Amino acid sequence: MFSEKFIAMNIRALLAFTIILSGIGGHANATTYAMPENSNDSVITEYPDGMAITRAEQDETLLDVARRFLLGQTEIVRLNQDVDRWLVKKGEVVRLSNRRILPDSPHNGLTLNISEYRMYYYPPTKKGEKPHQVMSYAHGVGRQDWKTPLGRTKVARKIMNPSWHPPESIRREHAANGDPLPLVVPPGPHNPLGSRALHLALPGEYRIHGTDIDKIHGIGMQITHGCVRMYPEDVEELYELVAVGTPVYIVKQPIKVGWLDNVLYIEAHPDLEGEETTLDQRFAVALRLIQKANNNQELPDFDQQALNNALKEQTGDPVAIHERLPPLEEASLSAPVPSVTDPKPAPKPARKASPDGYYHGN
Question: Bridge-partner residues for 196, per DSSP?
Answer without folding.
Answer: 160
